[in-house]
Write a structure and sequence with these properties.
Length: about 550
């Protein structure tokens, strides 16, 4: 329960945040639309259409492969809720989702590259043509590496919510595995697939770093990479604008289509969930599940192991004390800390404002509009990618001189908006529960302002805020999108340093820097979860 003054301050803060975010994004979009020489005819030229076709084609194939491979993994884990090492397999599947994309790409090159372990094994078996990590095949491989675990975990969560009564009925009827999948698991997965596939498809359409590293030339270029190349190498702003408008139009259509995806219907709350399953005792099923989990673990774990082994071969002490690393590390940490703090402040303001508007008994059209705008602003980055925002501001700031002067500020703001949807997802449940428990008591005692923050809110919300901050910092540390556009000798982050070392064929140094970056991101994740118990899927 909030006082009238607290509600006004919360709503005013939310309106200010909404104005800042929409102003930042709107300036970038206006610069794209009003750029002299862009023209909408560029949207229909041969090059732009070919890039758009490839973007949609690779995203479609990546989504299909990720979902198809994720289904057997989710079924195997759901059939076997208890076995030694299960929790570590589930946690391993979570690693690619929090891993900096550039590090994952290096791990995949170490396994599937021309001199990688997998191609060496294929040559030993007498296969002359190795697997190519570059081009469409490499992009698909990388997208499956990052998105198959995501699909498996989301579908696993849905399968674990199936009421226990279903399994007892299936056991009493003696239903074989095929019938269990057809009548029980299939309908649940069918309800989840549109949302899961839509999310993965959106991630693949806006993929940048993976395609930049593994694309392999103009024939395998997505819209994001084409925009980067048009500005960074060709300095063709007109083409960059045409491609950016194509990208925004495409993501807008995708988001509109996803809004019509039906939400999976939950089973009755009176039915017991997570009951014991009886369909995994057959020897054949055990062998199938064991094989599926072994393959999934190997596919996910080998690139991570390759990063560690390759990084250990580098001269890590020399790299750690090198001037280039110290400079890049300080820049990365400064940007990550600033972006993380900004993202947490924006998220807290948005959540507080939405709660204040929700507590209004008769919210008018203006308040409902602010609340809807805040909900949309939190997910703005899904519509306008970091590279598109950077492109718009690059064009907007060109008349004011050297854009590099504004680069650090732009990177911080863009990275904070990139992390905002995830930070809101972490903070919102904790804020809502805390407000429900303490709001009325604090109001009745007249505790508000700094006193409430120090005595009530701070001690309880410190852990979720720390978790959100560490996650936002890890995302910013591993991001190459905005920095790739604005990076220069004066602005070098760790991902940009790794990418520049790869470009100059100093792969040993790149592997060492990648291991260090991965360790820092892992450390941030551990710090963010200290003192908390994860009650999500991986602890079941």
């Amino acid at each position: 329960m909030l006082t009238a003054g607290e509600r006004m301050r919360a709503i005013g803060g939310g309106a200010l945040v909404l104005a800042v975010i929409t102003g930042f994004a709107g300036t970038a979009l206006a610069a794209l639309l009003l750029f002299d020489g862009a023209g909408f005819s560029g949207l229909l030229d041969t090059y732009t259409l070919s890039v758009a076709r490839f973007t949609l084609w690779q995203a479609t194939l990546s989504t299909l492969l990720s979902v198809l491979f994720g289904i057997p993994v989710a079924r195997a884990l759901a059939r076997r809720p208890q076995f030694p090492g299960r929790i570590w397999i589930v946690r391993l599947l979570a690693v690619p989702m929090g891993l900096p994309v550039l590090i994952g790409a290096l791990g995949l090159i170490g396994i599937w590259g021309r001199q990688g372990a997998m191609n060496d094994l294929l040559r030993m078996l007498g296969l002359a043509e190795p697997v190519s990590i570059y081009g469409l095949s490499g992009i698909l491989l990388a997208h499956v590496f990052f998105n198959m675990p995501l699909a498996a975990r989301l579908m696993l969560a849905g399968l674990e919510r199936i009421p226990g009564e279903y399994w007892r009925v299936a056991a009493s009827l003696g239903m074989p595995s095929r019938s269990v999948f057809r009548f029980i698991e299939g309908p649940v997965l069918l309800g989840l697939l549109p949302g899961v596939a839509g999310l993965i498809f959106m991630l693949c359409v806006t993929s940048f770093t993976l395609v930049l590293v593994l694309g392999g030339g103009p024939a395998a270029t997505t819209i994001e990479v084409a925009v980067y190349q048009a500005l960074r190498f060709d300095f063709d702003p007109g083409r960059a604008v045409a491609l950016a408008l194509m990208q925004i139009t495409m993501t807008g259509i995708l988001l509109a289509a996803m809004a019509f995806v039906p939400v999976p219907v939950e089973q009755s709350a009176t039915l017991a969930r997570g009951g014991r399953r009886f369909d995994g005792w057959r020897r054949q099923t055990q062998w199938v599940d064991g094989t599926v989990l072994l393959l999934a673990t190997t596919f996910t774990g080998l690139p991570l192991l390759a990063v560690v082994l390759a990084g250990l071969k580098a001269d890590l002490p020399a790299l750690l004390f090198s001037p280039a690393f110290r400079r890049a590390a300080l820049t990365s940490l400064a940007i990550a800390l600033s972006a993380g703090c900004l993202s947490v402040m924006l998220a807290a303001t948005i959540i507080h404002a939405r709660a204040a508007i929700g507590s209004e008994r008769r919210a008018g059209m203006a308040l409902r509009g602010i609340r809807a705008g805040l909900s949309g602003a939190g997910s703005l980055i899904l519509l306008v990618s970091p590279l598109m925002l950077g492109t718009g501001w690059f064009l907007a700031l060109r008349p004011f001189g050297d854009v590099a002067r504004f680069a650090p500020t732009l990177v911080i703001v863009i990275n904070s908006l990139m992390a905002l949807p995830f930070v809101i997802r972490v903070l919102s449940p904790a804020f809502d529960v805390h407000q429900a428990r303490t709001g009325r008591l604090a109001a009745s005692l007249g505790i508000q302002g700094f006193a409430r923050l120090r005595l009530i809110d701070g001690p309880v919300l410190a852990k979720p805020v720390l978790m959100a901050l560490s996650f936002a910092m890890a995302l910013s540390l591993g991001d190459l999108g905005a920095v790739a556009l604005f990076g220069s000798d004066d602005l070098v982050t760790l991902p940009y340093l790794i990418y520049s070392r790869l470009g100059s064929y100093r792969t040993n140094e790149a592997d060492g820097f990648a291991l260090i970056l991965g360790f820092v991101c892992l450390l941030l994740t551990v710090v963010g979860t200290l003192g908390s118990r994860n009650r999500m899927t991986d602890d079941r």
